[in-house]
Design a protein that fits this description.
364 residues, alpha/beta, Rossmann fold, binds S-adenosylmethionine, metal ion binding
Length: 364
Amino acid sequence: MEQILSMNGGSGEQSYANNSIGQSTCLSRSMPVLKQAVLDSCCTNLPETVTMADLGCSSGPNTFYVVSEITSIIYKRCCQLGRSAPEFRVFLNDLPGNDFNTVFQSLPAYQGKLREENGPGFGPLYVAGVPGSFYGRLFPLKTLHFVHSSSSLHWLSQVPPELTDKANPLINKWKIFISKTSPPAVINSYLTQFRKDFSLFLKLRSEEVAPEGRMVLTFRGRTTADPTSDESCLLWDYLGQAFQDLVAEGLVEEERLDTYNTPYYEPHPEEIQAEIEKEGSFTLDRLEVIALPWDSVNGGIKDDRATTAKRMAKAIRAVNESMFRSHFGEDILDPLFHRFIEIMAADTKEVEHVSLVISLIRKT
Ligand SMILES: C[S@@+](CC[C@H](N)C(=O)[O-])C[C@H]1O[C@@H](n2cnc3c(N)ncnc32)[C@H](O)[C@@H]1O
């Protein structure tokens, strides 16, 4: 995962920066929870330097959006309370393959804009990149006052090992993710991997977050108990169908398809709550569900199905391309997404994109 997963970099047509309106809408919808958590933390004594981290920052307009929000909320609140405003130290984390160059090239313009919007008393704001997996330690002990992550924690640290066992792998026939036809053992292996990863994530952050520090985490999830429901699986089923068609056309070997599984999981709120309680370092302050229509990939504009399918294909490609390329090769990408668009456009089903936003407080 660490070597292979990266969103499409740069700012071209296929880039994540240009195809992340859905994630940006989700981010805006999580703002009330984020704002509350930041304002609550302003009630206590703020340190002279507030240290925050955005985990899975990627590159593009969403990268600085949250940092702008958090720092502006704190600055404005301090001005209202007649307190001196803190300095800010911001760590932007992602996997090493992330396009950090694009992020840092846009930094001076962004810092100027923040000063302009907030006034000359704002800052300073020190920004550093931290390449590495959030399933490992990233920061020194008790240094973080605020942790944010959006649209990232649904990525697992690895494909469940039962599915990649060389001697006797579990086979998820014709599929690339959990589906209605998946054997129960496949579904269990995904849940087990998610539990392990989420619990490890909490433990690692519990070491890095200062007492009473906050985390606001938004990630894809589900509201139905059944992990094979369309809510979680429909788009992956369209993709699986597109791959099957490429197998039928001789463009992809059947064995290649059978050995590809997406390291991704959409948890149910109860699965999240159970892991937070079991790990024990954080109090769950809020858990909210964000449900967005598929039009969110069109910026909320209701379009015809074929147009939405095209936008959805670009959004999915910007996120998954690196992994598909690594397993299946470059040549299948265009035919795969062409077929995906046809399959989605020809269907009439529609489900909502569900995300969960959780606000956590580090116990003292
Ligand atoms: C869909 S993007 C979300 C980007 C941005 N936060 C947003 O809301 O638009 C998910 C990001 O999570 C990163 N990611 C996935 N697994 C990660 C891990 N284990 N450690 C650090 N970053 C990870 C990916 O590389 C990717 O840039």
